[in-house]
From TrEMBL:
GO terms for molecular function: ATP binding; glutaminase activity; NAD+ synthase (glutamine-hydrolyzing) activity. InterPro entries: C-N_Hydrolase (IPR003010), C-N_Hydrolase_sf (IPR036526), Gln-dep_NAD_synthase (IPR014445), NAD/GMP_synthase (IPR022310), NAD_synthase (IPR003694), Rossmann-like_a/b/a_fold (IPR014729). Gene3D superfamilies: Carbon-nitrogen hydrolase, HUPs. The keyword ATP-binding applies. The keyword ATP-binding applies. Residues 5-275 form the CN hydrolase domain. Keywords: ATP-binding, Ligase, NAD, Nucleotide-binding. It is an enzyme of class 6 (ligase). This is Glutamine-dependent NAD(+) synthetase. HAMAP family: NadE_glutamine_dep.
Amino acid sequence: MGRAVVVATCALNQWALDFEGNRERICRSIAIAKSRGARYRLGPELEICGYGCSDHYYESDTLLHSFQVLAKLLESPATQDIICDVGMPVLHRNVRYNCRVIFLNKKILLIRPKISLANAGNYRELRWFTPWNKARHVEEYFLPRIIQEVTGQETVPFGDAVLATKDTCLGTEICEELWAPNSPHIEMGLDGVEIFTNASGSHHVLRKAHTRVDLVNSATAKNGGIYILANQKGCDGDRLYYDGCAMISMNGETVAQGSQFSLDDVEVLVATLDLEDVRSYRAEISSRNLAASKVDPYPRIKVNFALSCSDDVAVPTCMPIQWRHHSPEEEISLGPACWLWDYLRRSKQAGFLLPLSGGIDSSATACIVYSMCHQVCLAVKNGNPDVLADARKIVNDETYIPEDPREFCKRIFTTCYMASENSSQDTCNRAKLLAEQIGSYHINLNIDAAVKAVVGIFSMVTGRTPRFTAYGGSSRENLALQNVQARIRMVLAYLFAQLTLWTRGKPGGLLVLGSANVDESLRGYLTKYDCSSADINPIGGISKTDLKNFIQYCIENFQLTALRSIMSAPPTAELEPLVDGQVAQTDEADMGMTYAELSIYGKLRKIAKAGPYSMFCKLINMWKEICTPREVASKVKHFFRMYSINRHKMTTLTPSYHAENYSPDDNRFDLRPFLYNTTWSWQFKCIDKQVSAL
């Protein structure tokens, strides 16, 4: 009868503008899909050029090279006898569109432009593309000559249409369209489309995966059908990590699940599904059938090809499975680790250097690198040739095989404890013990000579010597002396990153890792151009609360017992003089707020879009059991003063792994002024008026 269709989707680790590598990964995924019997293959959004090309989309080169790759794909024997659905930018009548190009046996069947563009948070698609606003409308697209020479076609259909094969009907969605309130799959399903496809470029955010899975399953729960989702994976050149999770769903249930985090550049899912299950599911939904009788029909592109075989009665079909979600601690362990691996191998550096202070943040960063080493060894053990080849290039040894995470860590990870006269022996011991347990190459050094030299130059020029407040100095002197220490650590970090391997007789340099968390950045509790200034920061989008939970996860799963004392110690910058040999300075006392409060402020400011007055109004209810309205007002005012005074620091924030939707990243996610009127006079008067009324 031809009822069991075999379809494939994939997650590919594409890289912006890496046309050669992207083509190779696309071809590999198609070959794998064909070898498993698939008759249709779906790939991620804009997979030919890579999703993150940004303003390179304006360049004619990007369009040209995308068509050149498309020509190679059309010619490839691997793409014959399988419907291939690939993503690339296309210029139609001088307007640039984000498109799917669907082809079979050297013939383009349809070019389908994206209807709903992603334009919030990290996404700026309206900057580069125009949405296709002509619903159910198809135009002629005149192919460039390099494609005409391969296909023999002069024009092909371009627009909002569906494919009618010999046995079923397929309709296309592209990423954001699944999230839109009027998703195309709704009316396509009413018009008889049985298979929906979605090519995505969706990035990781902590606790987000279930939302995507729920959307896919709900797409077919009400209306019946098969839903196939492909997604990009990995770091394609910026702060985002695309987290795979390719999946196939039928009638509201998942039947195939891809990994969320892995070092595999190509992952293919194949499922065999019975079309009669879709038809029988729909048959008893009377409300759906009544709506279907009134729907406007989609243009259908007829395809003389079937996704099933004529004799498939005995073919086994896929059964529903239970989706397994990672805990937030597992997400922190795996996501930033995979992002670091992509960054390391693609930047062609020899490893990482981390200033390890013995506190929670830098220790969490070290644990993420250690987790990365675990992932590399596991991938090699599982026979991944790409990871093995990359590891050998990084360590400059063509015969090397990474088997022990601690041994691999020793080769590619350098940690450095930079002591001063204000550092305690406790933090020094904690850093040393953690370095021993993860296996990093550890350096202990003292920065006092450099600090005295810098302060000495100032004293020689001005005739004045600044002092800490503990020794009678002013708050301005105190802050300046703290900042000198912090900035000298940054200078030394880069010096050692460039030359440490040279001193050991090895080639290459190291990437400097930052370790400021999202809450400190939001509050501005960091020195501009100190060790928060680095090449990349794997924890810059993660809250202090989540990092503490992650540290506990590492104690239990990696047996890193050194983390116990780090967990129990109060967070401190150790930039002010010790009192009786003990640390007197703590982060929360310095900030005038707790890290838990900071997370709440951050979520209200960014996610709830709350200014000072709205935040106050929300918090007097949230905190009514623990704070009076006057105390809430004082806390809100203090936060907004500190946030606005320090906002300028966000303009130089180290590129960080994006993991939280309240990130203050000024580059492209959280667009705000960096010179504020820090009195907030009108806003604070509104708060005071409300306090008086209460």
